[in-house]
Amino acid sequence: MSATLTIEQLKRLGRYPEATELAQHQLRQQPEDAELHYQLACLYDVQGLEQQAIPCYLAALARALPAARRQEAWLGLGSTYRALGQYQPSLDAFDRGLAEFPQAKELTLFRAMTLYNLGETKQAVADLLLLLAETSSHSDISSYQRAIRQYAADLDRIG
């Protein structure tokens, strides 16, 4: 019986409409619950209802959402805007997320995709090169970390 299952359990079972209904019901009872806003945003996203996810992400971020969830919410919000072709709001969301979580590599990665969509290909490639230099454990790449960083700083440099 789904009435005894939690939102997370329903989500894990792929029963997204039921999880959404439960989250909406709980949110009506607890409208200030940041976690419920976040869960509902994620549920809308997974069902392809990006337009409905945006206000939920914004509501979650406007409330006392724990740090790990805030980082995920910034990623979700930026990615959702990007999926809708709203590239400037996407970039703004990623920038705000990175201001709050400067070490969030996933935000940097998705931000680079948004930069590409905005026609900022040089900056996108530079950011991806830096990300690769910082995160790669592959010996053939990490041994060139210094060179990669130099190229990322000036992709057009000759000599």
From TrEMBL:
<dbReference type="InterPro" id="IPR011990">
    <property type="entry name" value="TPR-like_helical_dom_sf"/>
</dbReference>
<feature type="domain" description="Tetratrico peptide repeat group 5">
    <location>
        <begin position="38"/>
        <end position="155"/>
    </location>
</feature>
<protein>
    <submittedName>
        <fullName>Lipoprotein NlpI</fullName>
    </submittedName>
</protein>
<dbReference type="Pfam" id="PF12688">
    <property type="entry name" value="TPR_5"/>
</dbReference>
<dbReference type="InterPro" id="IPR041656">
    <property type="entry name" value="TPR_5"/>
</dbReference>
<dbReference type="InterPro" id="IPR019734">
    <property type="entry name" value="TPR_rpt"/>
</dbReference>
<keyword id="KW-0449">Lipoprotein</keyword>
<keyword id="KW-0802">TPR repeat</keyword>
<feature type="repeat" description="TPR">
    <location>
        <begin position="71"/>
        <end position="104"/>
    </location>
</feature>
